[in-house]
Structure formats: structure tokens, C-alpha cells
């Protein structure tokens, strides 16, 4: 079974481009079931990033994780 993930190419604060892959946090994680945004690499240009990740879409995507289910106690 192949799991399809989405990828993005995002301009970062360094003036270069970061590639991210999106999936789901696994069972047992404090973010279980929420969107996982995993860094894959950094490139000098968007063209270089597209060359290595042709399936990636350009543009920022937020994982929209929330933490309201966690206790405020340590």
C-alpha cells in the first residue's frame, strides 16, 4: 500500500526555499491525528527544489496544529 503525501516548496526567512512533506501524526503522539509538517530540504532556488520534488506545490501551508487538548500542568 502506498501512502500519498503532499509536499510544498516555501520561501523561507533566509531567502532560500524549503520543501516540506505533510502527513498525520501517529497514534501515541501528543498531536495524534493532526497534520504533521516534516522538513525535507533547503534549496537556493525554487527551480532546484522543483527539480528534486516535481510533485511539490509552491506556496506556504500551515499545519494548523492545536494544543488545547494538553494539560497546563507540568
Name the poorly predicted regions: none
Distance between the termini: 40 Å
Mean pLDDT: 90
Helix count equals 1
Q: From the helix content, strand content and strand pairing, which structural class follows?
A: mainly beta
Provide the spatial order of strands within the biggest beta sheet.
3-2-1-4
Envelope shape: elongated
Largest sheet: 4 strands, mixed
Sheet-strand content, in percent, reads 25-35%
Total E-strand runs: 4
Helix content: under 10%
Q: Over the alpha carbons, how many angstroms does the gyration radius reach?
A: 15 Å
Spell the H/E element sequence.
EEEHE
Explain this structure to me?
The protein has 74 residues and is mainly beta. The chain has a domain of 45 residues. Helices cover 9% and strands 34% of the residues. The protein has a 4-stranded mixed β-sheet with strand order 3-2-1-4. Strand 1 and strand 2 form a beta hairpin. It starts with 5 loop residues before the first strand and ends in a 16-residue tail after the last strand.
Properties at a glance:
74 residues, four-stranded mixed beta sheet, mainly beta, single chain
